[in-house]
Amino acid sequence: MIDKFSSKTIEALGSYVYVYSDPDTKKPFYVGKGKGNRVFQHLWDDSESEKVQKIKEIIGRKKEPLIEILAHGLDEDTALKVEAAAIDLIGINNLTNQKRGYESSTYGKIEVSALESRYAGEKLEDDNIKHNLMLIRINRVYRNDMTPYELYEGTRGCWKLSLDSAEKVDYVLSVYDGMVVEVYKPVQWFEGLTTFTTKDDDKSQWTQPRYEFVGRIADPKIRKKYVGKSVAEYFKKGDQNPIRYVWGK
């Protein structure tokens, strides 16, 4: 196996996306992007990362990792998106990559009806709102491939909010990129991190109380009314507060 490219090859490559695979199973274990000889640098990495340990394990079998260029002749932005698409296709849980690709939540793998709702979904009009709603933006944690439980956990807490207002809410709308992705019926609100959760937040760093709800996915009739609707206009540009209340009429 070679460990560097010639200058002519580097010139032709431009930006590229590459894949490391196990030589015996042919299963990919790392996806990356780069220029020049970036693809080979992992062979000399001496960190304790899972990727490096996998490479060492292969070498310990007296083999070499299978290194392939997935796409080349790309500009930087395209390479980032191809890398993200490859990671989404293989699945982050099947790779040693520590994070998903560039803007995967926006441009990554997504079911077609959800994509249509994102770009062409109708607006949720005030006159159609008959319930007291809490809108929660989950842009920081959202992924297109979240499981229902992950989406619930990412939506239900822990939030800085008025407990009095929260307890008047009929439904909580989980919002990503201005679109409602799920609706929950909160049963009860609790102080943050006092119910079973997979979160590992450090409560000692909180400067004020935070709260979380326990609930369930709303009934189909309610979901049909809200899921896929655009609520972007309820959040002012530049506002960092992830929570909005909309009171029914």
Describe the structure.
There is one protein chain. Helices cover 27% and strands 23% of the residues. The longest helix has 15 residues, at 76-90. 26% of the residues are buried. The strands form two sheets. Strands 7-6-5-4-8 form a five-stranded mixed sheet. A hairpin with a 2-residue loop joins strand 5 and strand 6 (179-191). The chain is α+β, with helices and mostly antiparallel strands and 249 residues long.
Mean pLDDT: 90
Alpha carbon gyration radius: 23 Å
- Helical content class: 25-40%
Which geometry do the CA atoms define?
elongated
Strand count, sense and barrel status of the largest sheet are: 5 strands, mixed
User: Number of DSSP helices?
Assistant: 8
Low-pLDDT runs of 5+ residues are none
Query: How are strands sequenced across the largest beta sheet?
Result: 7-6-5-4-8
What percentage of amino acids are in beta strands? Answer: 15-25%
What string, H for helix and E for strand, traces the elements in order?
HEEHEHHHEHHEEEHE
Number of strands: 8
Task: State the end-to-end distance.
Answer: 69 Å
| Strand-pairing-aware structural class | alpha+beta
Structural key phrases:
five-stranded mixed β-sheet, 8 helices, 27% helix, three-stranded antiparallel β-sheet, 249 residues, alpha+beta, 8 strands, elongated, 23% strand
Summarize the structure.
By secondary structure, the protein is an alpha+beta fold. The chain is built from eight helices and eight strands.
Secondary structure layout plus pairing:
Blueprint: H1 7-13, E1 15-21, E2 28-34, H2 50-60, E3 66-74, H3 76-90, H4 104-107, H5 112-120, E4 133-137, H6 148-156, H7 163-166, E5 171-176, E6 179-191, E7 211-217, H8 220-226, E8 243-246
Parallel strand pairs: 4-5
Antiparallel strand pairs: 1-2, 1-3, 4-8, 5-6, 6-7
